Amino acid sequence: MAFDNLTSKLQEVFKKLRGKGRLTEKDVTGALREVKLALLEADVNFRVVKDFIASITARATGHDVLEGLNPGQQVIKIVHQELITLLGSTNSMITYASKPPTIYMVVGLQGAGKTTFSGKLAGQLRKQGKRPLLVACDVYRPAAVKQLQVLGRGLNVPVFALSPDPPDPVAIAGQSLAHAKENGYDLVIIDTAGRLHIDEEMMDELKRLKSEVRPQEILLVVDAMTGQDAVTVAEHFDKGLGVDGIVLSKLDGDTRGGAALSVRHVTGKPIKFASMGEKLEDLQAFYPERMASRILGMGDVLSLIEKAEQTIDAKEAMALEKKIRSNAFTLQDFLNNMQQVKKMGPLKNLLGMIPGMNQMNVDESQINEDALKHVEAVILSMTPAERADPGLLNGSRKRRVAAGSGCSIQDVNRLLKQFEEMKKMMKQLTGFSHDKKKRSWFPGM
């Protein structure tokens, strides 16, 4: 995630605070100095850092905190609360027009991820029972219209596109509204053209588009990997056009994440969505409290649960639990289970949602998704009978499986051993959740 480096540095600061039974004002001031440096290294806007540290200092150096029980824990709590405030305090959802169709204009610089976000948003709203129409108004970037059409086909969402000569995005947008009303689409998502940088020509075109379609919301997509430049972009768009919400793209990248901590404070506009991956389902509503918890290494269990509920079939999970209890869990069940978990997104992102996981020093090799592909290949090289009863795998069968999966016999033996150990562990875990009302949402647990 974008905040990995920041999270690890903040965790070091908090570890020192927790280790002291009593805190002095000097201890707090020193810790906040390290927090300030960590934020600046994460490319958070200097004005934002200054205001943020001032707010924490005013609260954390008071008598009640320094003389109270667990002062270190209280300082961490204050940092958490101020971080939530910095990110926007409450979740800000997109709004709908009182009379359909609801129109969203998606704007931003070229390469920020507008087209991909438009598709992701359409797909998400379609799952909620809406009838979205995507509109291709980026008539300048080569293959932009084609990209949107490909996304639309994958999502089963129609795309409205025209090729007027000369190109006229305003006319296309106007005709798309008439098309939406005639065909009963209750949402129109307009993918607009971007530029490599903000210029008067682009802003003028967007203003004419806004005047033509009168959108319910203008959503600005900013690239989290551009750091403080994203804040500058957001300021210019809001000043020239007026935006209703911000979308942070590429938050799953290896970036310093400063944009997310700066853009809300500087512009005053809410962050509405965060894009956490390349897949069309990797779009999350932005919850300030959840993001603050992830940044501080406290995990994000609610988002993890929501991902699981969207991906994992409840009936299958219950059937799987029964198999585990009766010791009937097979390699085929394991394969099915693993494939469901993979649908939830990159494993690194999932681990970041588990509280305390970042403190366990899990390195990249331990969450290498290529290793899962090898496991899949080994199991798929077995016959159905062998998956149901691994005891059938004698020496010659193991050689066949190893050859079929491109692995060694040692790899096959290692998988079988780990599978048996996992079965024992999972059976023990189900013993802790025997109450059906309290059954865990996670498959096999």
Brief description of this entry?
The chain has 20 helices and eight strands. The chain has helices at 4-18, 25-41, 46-60, 63-66, 71-87, 114-127, 144-155, 169-183, 200-213, 228-240, 258-267, 288-295, 301-311, 314-325, 331-342, 347-352, 369-380, 384-388, 395-405, 409-430, and strands at 102-107, 132-137, 159-160, 187-192, 217-223, 245-249, 271-275, 283-285.
Name the average pLDDT.
Answer: 80
Q: Flag low-confidence runs.
A: 356-366, 432-445
Measured by DSSP, the beta-strand proportion falls in 5-15%
User: How many independent structural domains?
Assistant: 3
Following the backbone from N to C, one meets helices and strands in this order, namely HHHHHEHEHEHEHEHEHEEHHHHHHHHH
CATH architecture of the largest domain: 3-Layer(aba) Sandwich
Helix fraction, binned, reads 55-70%
Features of this protein?
20 helices, Four Helix Bundle (Hemerythrin (Met), subunit A), 445 residues, single chain, 9% strand, disordered C terminus, Rossmann fold, 8 strands, alpha/beta, 434 Repressor (Amino-terminal Domain), eight-stranded mixed sheet
Overall description:
The longest helix is centred in the C-terminal third of the chain and has 22 residues, at 409-430. This protein is flat. Helix 17 (369-380) packs across helix 19 (395-405). The model is unreliable at 356-366 and 432-445 (pLDDT under 50). Helix 11 links the parallel strand 6 (245-249) and strand 7. It has an eight-stranded mixed β-sheet, sandwiched between helices. With 445 residues, it is of the alpha/beta class. The relative contact order is 0.10. The protein folds into three domains: 4-87, Up-down Bundle (Four Helix Bundle (Hemerythrin (Met), subunit A)); 102-298, Rossmann fold; 305-438, Signal recognition particle, SRP54 subunit, M-domain (434 Repressor (Amino-terminal Domain), Orthogonal Bundle), CATH 1.10.260. Helix content is 55%, strand content 9%.
